[in-house]
Structures are given as structure tokens and as C-alpha cells.
Automatic annotation (TrEMBL):
Residues 166-178, 269-311, 339-353 have a biased composition (Basic and acidic residues). Residues 28-45 have a biased composition (Polar residues). Keywords: Coiled coil. Residues 46-61 have a biased composition (Low complexity). It holds the Pfam family DUF4078. This is Uncharacterized protein. InterPro entries: CCDC174-like (IPR025066). GO terms for cellular component: nucleus. Residues 1-114, 141-191, 265-353 are annotated as: Disordered.
Length: 353
């Protein structure tokens, strides 16, 4: 057992050694101190011998007996208990209010902090870390511990007595009228099993019929062969006479599904007039969209045709220019070749001469 958490007051209870007292600081021993000590010792011895005869005749003063921790009680506990038992005690008056102000956060934190401090103090007192020599906290955990030990001992003794009584031999009569001998526990078990069997048999029995006929009774309508036919004819007539009313118009209710995130989603009204107006607006928007789309496609088509015309014109101009350049080059080549032939002929004639 650890003596670390025991207090100074509970040391005799748990057999823990008392805390050692602090020793006074040692003084230097010299001749003057020794002479003073011897003189004081001699005076005490002389005074003791003179008063020894008188001390034998007179009785010594009894010391104050230390109170037992198990016999001491809290102060004024009986007065508080009597005050609590009074009918007009204000401690038991319940005060209810329906218009109380909201609790401030600072007050709430302050109350929470105080309750935590109380919980820590109670846990420390329960462990024995806090010494309560002056009965300040009004909680005697030693008394609680002793009462708990006594209760456990009494429970153990009562359980032993019950076990002894269960082992006692007794006689009883079973459900078949036989006299049997055994322990009290066996008798209780047999009686419990018999009771459970009777309850199960009662539960498995069928219920009493409600249409049971008792006594002399003329059963005129006990057997009526035309009753099923009459019932079938009545059912056919009910189906024939039923008015052919069309089912009510029901529209799709998108509130029962999650379609708000769908593309092109629109919630239509359940009112017929409002629904028609919404459909009309949608048709108008669709017609306007188709008209704008057709105009845009027409503009794109006209632009493409104009671009194609310009390309054709450019191609024609480029082809005409290329043809002119080709003809010009060809003409230059053809004009240069006759002049060259004339020069060669002139040179040949000059050489012959």
C-alpha cells in the first residue's frame, strides 16, 4: 500500500509512518554552552529530588484523549438534518421562471471554473491528498470507507447464510403428486420450471370462438346457397352503375425530385391558367430565338457568298496578270531570236568576202 497520498491526520489509520519533524539547525558546541548545560541539568535534578515525595501523593493531570476518527461527526450535522426535514424549509422550495434573462458568458465561465475547482478538491479529498484536521470540508471519507467495509462484510455474511439455507434438505410435492426430497434450491428450480411450463401451455391454447351458439337456437340463415351469387351480382351492378368520370389532370411535380441543378430546368405552376401563360411565354421565346438564329445564319451565308465572289474576282485578276506576263515574256523571246539570226548571217557574209 502506498503512503504517498495519505494525510497527516489519517497516518495512524493506515499505519503510515508519521512525517519526520524538521530538526533545528545544530549550533556550535563550545565551553560556554557546555557549562550552561551542566548547570541547568544540576538544577533540574535537584528540583526533581525535592518534589519527588509530593508528586507521589498527587495524581498527575490526565491528558486530553484524542478523538477517534470513526466516532467524530461533522459539526451541527443534526441541526442541519432537522432543518432540512421541516416542511417549510426554503431549501426545498422550487423556484420556476419563464422570463429569466440570458446568462452572461463571463458568469457562465466563472461558474464552470468554480465547479471544476470543486470537482478537483473533491477528488483530492477522496484520494486523501487534502488533510482536513479542522473539519472544514464537512466530508468524512474515512467514515464512508468504514461504512462501505462494514456493508461488504454484512453482505458476505448474508450471502453465506443464504447459501446455507439453500443447502438445507426439504420435501415438496411436484406437479404429478409425488413427494420429492432435495435442497431448497432444487425445490425453487422445479417450481419455477413448472410455472413456466403452465404459462407456455396457457399461451399456446387457442382463443375461445366469439360466434359460439349456446342453447336452443333456430338457425334459419345457417346455410344460404344463393348468398355468394347475390354478392357477385351486387358487385357487378356497382361496377356497372359507376360513373365514367375521367381522372383528374395531374401535372409533374418537380418538388418531389432534385432537378434544380439540371440544364434547362424550369418549375411550372400547378394552376392551369398560370401554366398556360408560362407555356405561351416559352413559345414566344422559342419563336424569337428561331428568328434571331435564322437571321444570323442568313447573314453568315451572305457573307460567305460575298467572300467567295471576291476570291473568284481575285483569282481571275491573278490569272489574267499571269497570262499577260507569259505573253509578254514569250514575245520578248520571239523578238530576240530573229535579230540574232541576222547577226550571224552578216558575220558569215563578211568572212566569205
Amino acid at each position: 500500500m502506498s503512503y504517498r497520498n495519505t494525510s497527516a491526520k489519517d497516518a495512524p489509520l493506515y499505519g503510515a509512518p508519521k512525517p519526520a519533524k524538521k530538526q533545528k539547525s545544530s549550533r556550535e558546541i563550545n565551553s560556554s554552552n557546555t557549562l550552561a548545560f551542566t548547570s541547568q541539568l544540576e538544577s533540574l535534578i535537584n528540583s526533581g529530588t525535592n518534589t519527588s515525595s509530593r508528586s507521589t501523593t498527587t495524581s498527575s493531570r490526565p491528558r486530553a484523549k484524542k478523538e477517534d476518527i470513526f466516532a467524530s461527526h461533522n459539526r451541527n450535522v443534526k441541526k442541519r438534518a432537522a432543518r432540512d426535514l421541516e416542511d417549510d424549509s426554503p431549501a426545498f422550495d422550487q423556484k420556476h421562471s419563464t422570463s429569466s434573462e440570458a446568462l452572461d458568458s463571463s458568469a457562465w465561465h466563472r461558474s464552470k471554473r468554480k465547479m471544476e475547482e470543486k470537482a478537483r478538491l473533491y477528488a483530492a479529498m477522496k484520494r486523501g491528498d487534502v488533510s482536513d484536521e479542522n473539519d472544514t470540508h464537512l466530508v468524512d471519507f474515512d467514515r464512508k470507507w468504514a461504512d462501505q467495509q462494514n456493508k461488504q462484510l454484512s453482505d458476505q455474511s448474508s450471502s453465506e447464510d443464504e447459501s446455507d439455507s439453500d443447502k438445507e434438505m426439504v420435501e415438496w410435492e411436484d406437479e404429478f403428486g409425488r413427494t420429492r426430497t432435495g435442497t431448497a434450491a432444487q425445490r425453487a428450480r422445479e417450481q419455477r420450471l413448472a410455472q413456466l411450463g403452465s404459462e407456455a401451455a396457457m399461451r399456446s391454447r387457442p382463443d375461445m370462438p366469439t360466434n359460439l351458439i349456446v342453447g336452443d337456437t333456430v338457425q334459419a340463415s345457417a346455410f344460404n346457397p344463393d348468398e355468394p351469387v347475390a354478392q357477385q351480382m351486387a358487385d357487378l351492378a356497382a361496377k356497372r352503375d359507376k360513373s365514367l368520370t375521367p381522372p383528374p389532370d395531374t401535372h409533374f411535380d418537380s418538388t418531389k425530385e432534385i432537378r434544380q441543378k439540371g440544364v434547362g430546368f424550369m418549375q411550372f405552376s400547378h394552376d392551369d391558367q398560370e401554366r398556360k401563360r408560362q407555356f405561351g411565354n416559352l413559345e414566344m421565346e422559342r419563336a424569337e430565338t428561331e428568328r434571331v438564329r435564322a437571321e444570323r445564319e442568313k447573314r453568315l451565308k451572305d457573307r460567305k457568298e460575298e467572300i467567295e465572289k471576291r476570291r473568284n474576282a481575285i483569282r481571275q485578276k491573278q490569272g489574267k496578270k499571269q497570262a499577260d506576263d507569259f505573253l509578254t515574256g514569250l514575245g520578248k523571246e520571239l523578238g530576240a531570236q530573229p535579230a540574232k539570226e541576222e547577226d550571224t548571217a552578216v558575220k558569215e557574209s563578211t568572212q566569205d568576202s
